[in-house]
Amino acid sequence: MKALDDVAAEAKATPAQVALAWLAAQPAIAAPIASATTVPQVEELVGALRLTLTADQLRTLDAASR
């Protein structure tokens, strides 16, 4: 969780946005599945689509996921 929180702070994004952006960057995943039931949740999901993680951020998250 620390790696996720650190990357989120660095990217000025929420941990959920970072997690979805990281999943979307994985070659084996065609599209992460997420759902929302409120407008604020949709806005957070859209923020993940706009987020591009750096190579260093992706490496940090990859290492933490092992």
Helix content: 55-70%
Task: Give the strand content.
Answer: under 5%
By DSSP (H or I, 4+ residues per run), the number of helices equals 4
Low-confidence stretches: none
Task: Give, in order, the helices and strands.
Answer: HHHH
Gross geometry: globular
Summed over residues and divided by their number, the pLDDT gives a mean of 94
What is the number of domains? 1
- Subunit arrangement of the protein: single chain
**N-end to C-end Cα span:** 12 Å
Number of strands: 0
Structural class, by secondary structure, is mainly alpha
Main sheet specs? none
**Rg measurement, Å:** 12 Å
Jot down its keywords.
single chain; 66 residues; mainly alpha; globular
SSE diagram, text form:
Layout: H1 2-11, H2 15-24, H3 39-50, H4 55-64
Brief synopsis:
With 66 residues, the chain is an all-alpha fold. It has helices at 2-11, 15-24, 39-50, 55-64.
Written account of the structure:
The protein has 66 residues and is mainly alpha-helical. It has one domain. The chain has 4 helices and no strands. Helix 2 packs across helix 3. The protein is globular and about 30 Å long.
